[in-house]
Every structure is written in C-alpha cells, then in structure tokens.
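Researcher: Last one for today. Full complex below.
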Amino acid sequence: MNRAPDTLRFKPLGIDTAYDHVVFMHARCHVCRAEGFAAQTRIVVHARDKSLIATLNIINDGLLDTNDISLSLGAQHTLGLEEGDPVTVSHVPFLHSASLVRGKIFGQRLGRADMQAIIDDAVTGRLSELHLASFVTACAGEHLDTDEIVALTEAMVTAGERLTWPHPVVVDKHCVGGLPGNRTTPIVVAIGTACGLVMPKTSSRAITSPAGTADTMEVLAPVNLDLAGMRRVVEQTGGCLVWGGAMSLSPADDVLIRVERPLDLDSDGQLVASILSKKIAAGSNRVLIDLPVGPTAKMRSIEAANRVSGRLVAVGRALGIEVTPMVTDGLQPIGRGIGPALEARDVVQVLTNEKNAPADLRERALLLAARLLELGGKAAPGQGAQLAAATLDSGRAWTQFQRICAAQGGLREIPVAPLVHIVRATRAGRVSGIDNRVLARIAKLAGAPTSPVAGLDLHVHLDTWVERDQPLFSIHADAPGELRYARSYQAEHTDVIVIEEES
Amino acid sequence: MNRAPDTLRFKPLGIDTAYDHVVFMHARCHVCRAEGFAAQTRIVVHARDKSLIATLNIINDGLLDTNDISLSLGAQHTLGLEEGDPVTVSHVPFLHSASLVRGKIFGQRLGRADMQAIIDDAVTGRLSELHLASFVTACAGEHLDTDEIVALTEAMVTAGERLTWPHPVVVDKHCVGGLPGNRTTPIVVAIGTACGLVMPKTSSRAITSPAGTADTMEVLAPVNLDLAGMRRVVEQTGGCLVWGGAMSLSPADDVLIRVERPLDLDSDGQLVASILSKKIAAGSNRVLIDLPVGPTAKMRSIEAANRVSGRLVAVGRALGIEVTPMVTDGLQPIGRGIGPALEARDVVQVLTNEKNAPADLRERALLLAARLLELGGKAAPGQGAQLAAATLDSGRAWTQFQRICAAQGGLREIPVAPLVHIVRATRAGRVSGIDNRVLARIAKLAGAPTSPVAGLDLHVHLDTWVERDQPLFSIHADAPGELRYARSYQAEHTDVIVIEEES
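Model: Here's the assembly. Have a good evening.
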C-alpha cells in the first residue's frame, strides 16, 4: 500500500458508530484534496504500525483543524490511538476478493482459495458491508453447491480459533431456529452432561429472532466467557452454556450475520456453513441438529428440511464430523415465553419439575436429550428416552444446570418486565392457527432481545378452546415507546392467532 | 408512523456524509434509551412536517447535550433545519419492499407493483444501502428477464418527474461510456437541432470519469437550468445541453448508481433501465445509443454489446420508444483533451472547423449525427452522412451551438490551466497501446473535474510513430499539489502509453 507522505494529528471526537469504522477529516485538509478523497470514500488509515479501512466523513466547521484527523470510537480503540498521535492515510488497494464476489454474482464457482480470500477480507474489514451484502445475496437462493459450502465452512473455521479437547467424543446440539420459544438447549445440556457427556456448548445471540440461546442463558448466568474461562467450566462440569462470540470461533460467521440480519437473509448454504463452522471450531465431532418444520418456522416443508439435512451430513462428512439431523414438529411455538427472560423462566420451570412447566418444552427437550445420549454412547439405542426422563425427574439435571451456572459466574434471578399488555380473544372458538413470524416480530418490536425482559407470553396453543375476552398472549416491554410500537403492529395483525367459531 | 412524544433540539455539527443520512444523539439521551436505539440503528427523523430515515451514531462527549440531536449535512438540508428546531424520532416501520427484495434473491419474479414498491422505497431512502446492494446483486447476472427490466424501467420513470413535449418526434443520443474524451454529444446536438430535430438533452456529471458531458458543457455555458429554464431553451432553439441532476428525472437511477459504483457492478438489466428511464422521463421517443467496444471501455466485447443492444431495443419497444443501438470502436480515447476545459476546446475546434481539430472526434460525431438525422426523419436512409457533414462544414452547427449556449445564459471563454507538465517518450518507436483507465486516473489526480481546467492533453494516438523526447501527453492542473500528485502517479505508470521499438 502506498502511504501519503503527509501526516495528520489524531483528535478524539467520541463518536460511536459500532462496527462501522468512520474517519473524519476537514473539508480543506490538504491530504483529502491531494488524494481526491470525498465523503463516503473508503480509505486506509495507518497508525502505530497498524491499519484499518474506514469510511470518510467530511467535517465543515470547527470540530477539526485542517491538520487534524479523527476516528470513530471502535476504530480509535482498534488502532490504540491517543490525542496527538500521528496518522497517515492512503487509498484502498485493489481487492482481489471484491472481484471474486463479482464473479460469483455472474455465476462463477468459488474454490477453496477464493472462499478463503473472501472470508479473510470479511474478517479484517477490508471488504465493505456493501460487498458483504452482495456476497451473501449472491450465495443465497441455492447458488452454492456442496463443494462451495465445504470451502466456505473450512474458510470460516480457518479464519478463527479452533479448540481441541482431550476427549474422544465431544457432542453438540443445535437448532436451526425459526421456532419462537424453542429453548431446549439448556435442558439438553443439563441432562447430557449430568449423564457424563462432554458438551462445550457455545451459542449465538439472536440474528433475526427475539432471542438466541446466548441471550436467554445470559438471563440466568454470565455467558461472556473467554476461552480459558470456558475450558475451566467444561473441566469442572463436563459442559458449558456460553456465548460463542467472545471465543473468536468462526468470527466470519458474526461478520456475515451482521449483514444477513438487516437483510433477513439466511440461505441453505450460509446456514450449513454457519452451523458447522462453529461446531468444528469448537472441537465437536458428533452433532445433533434439530430442524423444526412448519409453515411459519425457518424450515417451511419436510422437503426443505430434508434438503438442508442432506447438505449438513455431506458437508460434515467432508470435514470429518458426524452430523445427525432430526426433523421435528414446528407447527407452533414451544413453551410459553418468547424473549430472553420469558424463555429462561420456561427453562427453569422444566428443570425444576414445576407442576405448571410447559409440557411441550419438556417433551421436546427429552426427545433431543435421548437421541444425544445414544449418539454420545451413554445409552444403548432405544434406551436414551428412559435415561433422559430419569435424569430430569430425579432433579439431577437441575443440580447439574446449577453447577454449570455457578462455574460460569453464578445463577441469576430472572427479571420481570415493568409493562405488560394483554391481548384478548375477540370471540369464542377454537385456536386453529398461530403465526410464528408475526409473534416473533411483535416480540422484537417490544424490545427483545435488547431488553431481556421484553417479549411475549403465549397463553394458548393450537386447538385450545377460548372464550371471548380470554387472554391469548401478553406483550412484555421495558419502554413505553417499544410497547406502543408492538401494540400498533399487533393491532394491524389480528389474525396472528386464528380463532374458528364452532360450526 | 408513530412519533415519539419526546422532542429533541437540533444542533448543527457540519458533518458531511454525502448521500448517507446520519443522525447523532448523545449516549445518555432519554429518547435513545426509551426507544432502545443503539449505534447503527436505522431510525425515522421527523421535523418541519417532513421525515427521513437515518443511521444512528452515538456521541459520547461534549459535542451534544442529552437533549440535542444532530444530523449530517445532507439530512439537515433535506429537512431544512436550523439550530434549535424541534425534532422527533421513531422506529422504522416494517418494509414490504424488503420482503420483495428477499423474494427476488430466492428466485421470485418481480411484477410491476413489486418493482414500484422497491424503487419508491429506494428513492425515499426507506431501503438501506445494504438492501440496495442486495437488490442490485439479486438482479445482476442475468436474473432479470425482459418483463422485469420493463417493470424496473417503468418504476424508475414513475418515481420522478416526466417531461412531455408538443412535438411528435423527440430524439436523444446516449453513450454507455467508459471511453475518455468521447465528447460527441455537444456536436451531435448542434448538428441535429440545426437540421430541425427536437433534442432536449440532459447529461450527467462525472461519476467515476474525469468529466461528464455536463461538466464539459459547463465550461461553455451555464447547465444548472431548472425545468422551466430548460423548456424555454428548447422552445427557442429546438435543443439544449443541460445537467439532468436538477430535473429530478429518474432519481432512482442516481440512488442505484451509488451502490453499483463501489460494488463495480453494472448488470445488463440495470444498465438498460438506467439509460431508458432517463430518456423516457425526458420525453424522448427515438433514441440512439452509442456502445463503444474495447478492452478498457465499459463494453469489453462485441458479444456483450450485442446482448445489451437486444435488451435495449426490446425494453424500448415495450415502453413505446424506438431505440437504435450503434456499436462503435472503443479501443482508444477520442479527441485529445481529457477533462472539462480540454474536452470543451476539442468540441469547439470541431464545431468551428479549425484546421487542427481532432479528426477522430469530428468523424465519430458525424457518424452519430448522420444516424440520428435519419432516425428523426430529417434525412432519407443513407443521406444522413451528407446532411450532417454539410451542416458542420457550412458553420450552421456552430451558429446553432452558439444559439443554444446564449439561450442557456451565454457562451463562455474556455479557461486555460496555469500549470502544464509535458510527459515525453523515453525512446523512439510506434505507439502500440494506450491504457484508458490509467489516463483517466491521471486526469482525475490532476484535479478533473473539480478544477475544470485540469486534465490531460493527448498528443499521440495508436500507431503514431514517435521520436525519443517527443511529447506523449501534457498534464494540466490548477494547483501545484495536484500536479505533483498526478505526476507521481504517472511516474509509477510509465506503461500508460506503450511504445514498441522497430524490430
């Protein structure tokens, strides 16, 4: 990279732009003019023997002198800058990876080296958000074949840390999602590790849903552990329930998710690479994957689930891990709560064998735990169900869950939302339909997962008979603006729960 | 859209983020906290009965108080804000157009209403740059069929102003670009309108090139006319040569170009919609399109040019305009000057029949004018060339050009650069290669088009025999810093003009 000979002086402005690095220079700055930079130009910023790429904003008044340069907080911290430090800038070099993305758009296949170049430039921020949006779009809609998904998965593993464990069998469990409230993971980990399975579970935060497993677990215990902390918890208890984001396992996944989320885009290829790169990087070698199928779940049909299952098994085999897909019923939400705190409440009710615990969540968790115990060699084929139920009913799963939470930093009290609005049936009848997507959207508008207490508490399931004015669900929120917004969306979507009158 | 009840006070910060609207709020602002906003959240900003969508940056120090709100300059001007004005904010509503973009990614065809929804939300800024990047990617790589390109073109026309003219035949001429110095438009308009054609020509300013036709024309006459001013000029003279940016013709085109440019993505479908939406909005019904083909031009092969030509004709027919594509030689620059004033000089030399006028520019302009005269019914088939040459040679084209300039506000003197550096041949030989892209870059580094006098004057063409030390081209600049910068880049790219020694 060519560096301009002219050095500017760093002045902090304290502007937080999250992951999006921004550089600020004065409109009459000689370097801007000489280099031909304008607002929105992407430029390389060099300081303290490091560099990063940032987008230029131009300052027109007294915030900066013409010899000053400033950076958004994230960029300032990445470079470790202090006031007065010398900074130079240069043009962004030609990016080979950008040409590869372009090639993919026009139908070229991407090989291993190609995928690695794209993923490496994604992780270091050389590719802009626009390029990443273009990349995930070009890969979506069945445009990646199995070899390309293998190449993408491997590139994502290579771009981050990779854990190894001293145990021959390391199991994991994952749900592709799309089913609100389907929070079986904490229960399955508790049962599995209580029976001796090794299960270093890393989870993600919500992408397009009202809560990810990490968001829900964070209500119950700290989840932001580093690698050493996670190892210690697994050594002590055989398992953990932590956020994967702090581990630097497949960091490319987080970068891609950043653009997939606002685009609400999650294609088969990206889904498989996202799941398996995290599992492989975490060191698992036997992985159970739950694929709930339903008209409003992520998998809309058995065919779609089978297609993804086939991809998961094939890509897993190519990369040396045994993947067992399990297609489950995704017709309606599991449990009652949708949103971090409300889901955490359901989980604890099941683990503590409360009378009122949601039976569907218990049943689903037992089904998955049974299969996992068989896969991991802790139960003979056909014997998993009995062992799982006994472990839960005896309280051993709850004891084990508390051990894990304690090792992660301590079990927490579940908080409750200050604002609750009850949505009632407008007539009597039988509940004949529940729209998972609309429910999820209401929960998100209410503030989930950013406000952990926000979300939605479902009081009915399919085939429940309701009277007029009977509560269908409650909207929970932390802020009046958010509650108002969720209510106004709900008012426009009264068919989120369909009630059929007796004929 | 629901408005938050809480009002903030506008404080200008003078930060220019170009087209990308940014809103600045304090980290402890009560509205941010109540609404759950974080850095990079997209929010609706309401003020003075207008609204726009902007991306949130969070201020952590003394630039703003907790009751203040600031906006980037573009957003401030769009809302017409002054210091102290009340501003409210709200969440971005659910966007149907975003679902349509998603559908396209997964292979759904987009109908007329779909395209209109997407384009309307693009123009008003409701769709983010990420969504637009995803949209142009999903449409690239031959993923738009002719019906979809027709729908896209029509939606782009509908989203802006649309001119009508009392004349049955209104002609236009367009070049797809990529060839430096190819400034035939002013000459073609002068010849065509001198022969009675009606030609309300709107041109663009430079996007990635050293000069757009509007930049070059501005050296010779005012081009920033409004709609009424343009109509008056066309009524008086039969034609005009104005900047299209002030007309609001197909504003969606400018929005899409903003994301296509950094992605270096210009698909057939978008190219056709971009060109034809501008022409239809300007009220033309017979359009000649110049497609220069060459290894460093936009059309790299005859096949590519033919494919685009077919689309242009089909889409034009569906929308009621007659499009005539014309594939031309794009191997090397046309004329000598590259940059606004130097290109204007070439244009005037051709129009005034100067002995020294660049023959290639004259020839290319006559070729296009001839075809246009035939298309517009002013010459019988095969007779256009003779009429065009006679009109130019007799001085009638020059007289007509002066009339147009006078009507637009007065013909101007062409300014000359104070600084000129001559680049000379380092050996004798035959010129065997000219890199259009590097030449354009040198001209831009010298200050074009911001400094109208800046640019590059080419003294040789392909196959010219040169002696050692013979001038190859001159770099023109207005400022010493810019000249230094262009020279240093040129010194690193000595193969911009390849000289082959006699073997």
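Chain A touches chain B through 67 residues (CB under 8 Å). The mean pLDDT of chain A is 91.
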